[in-house]
Specification:
This protein is an alpha/beta fold. It is built from eight helices and eleven strands. Helix 6 crosses helix 8. It holds the Pfam family Trans_reg_C.
């Protein structure tokens, strides 16, 4: 049974959505706040999350950011109707789709089905990425590379995580600025260059091998994650 995590603090809405999901063959988990959501994410590893932005305490933005540190599972964001800025912010922060409140049952189910249909099984940080010897450790903001752990800054961690998720694909400097630095205007391109240099140096030092570098600069375009021995163009 496909497991779906609903993060919603309105008890009436949460009950209605849980019943709807259960009647349509899903195992519905529920968290009333952000901290409980993160605990369930780590413990249960659902296939999809339905996330309300307006949560008490740890809000939906924090939950979305920390979720993206742990996994690439699909996230359906619940937003206030007409709040275009929330929708744009959510998509830029890594949400896969959004649904304004109030919504109909059929539309919610259709969006859940579409996200699950077009998404591969979620990958979770802390798992090995292929057989290349890399493991991300979100709770310590570090990476284990070739059996050795190295601590990373927040920017370095987010940079490596984005490149790993897009293994083999070139991520442009502009995309990195937008998604790692939240700089959609693409200013400060030198920040990317020096952050990548620092990250590559840390990974090489961790492996004790100057050649053991899984990051590749693609001249005039950007960077990609391609570990040694990974064949590609």
């Amino acid at each position: 049974m496909t497991r779906v995590l609903l993060v919603e603090d309105d008890p009436d809405l949460a009950l209605a959505v849980r019943v709807l999901l259960a009647r349509n063959g899903y195992e519905a988990l529920h968290a009333e706040d952000g901290r409980e959501a993160l605990r369930l994410l780590f413990a249960e590893r659902p296939a999809l999350m339905i996330l309300d932005i307006g949560l008490p305490g740890l809000d939906g933005w924090d939950v979305l950011e920390r979720t993206r540190d742990m996994s690439d599972l699909p996230v359906l964001l619940l937003t206030a109707r007409g709040a275009e800025s929330d929708r744009v912010r959510g998509l830029r922060a890594g949400a896969d789709d959004y649904l304004p409140k109030p919504f109909g049952n059929d539309e919610l189910l259709a969006r859940v089905e579409a996200l699950l249909r077009r998404s591969a099984p979620a990958r979770w940080a802390g798992e090995n990425h292929g057989e290349d010897g890399l493991r991300l450790v979100p709770e310590r903001r570090s990476a284990i590379w070739q059996g050795h752990e190295t601590r990373l800054s927040d920017i370095e961690y987010r940079l490596l995580q984005l490149l790993v998720r897009n293994r083999g694909r070139v991520i442009t400097t502009e995309q990195l600025l937008d998604r790692v630095w939240d700089d959609p205007e693409g200013t400060g391109r030198e920040r990317v260059k020096f952050a990548v240099l620092r990250l590559r140096r840390k990974l090489r030092q961790a492996a004790g091998d100057e050649a053991a570098d899984p990051l590749e600069a693609v001249r005039g375009l950007g960077y990609r994650y391609r570990p040694p021995g990974d064949e590609g163009p």
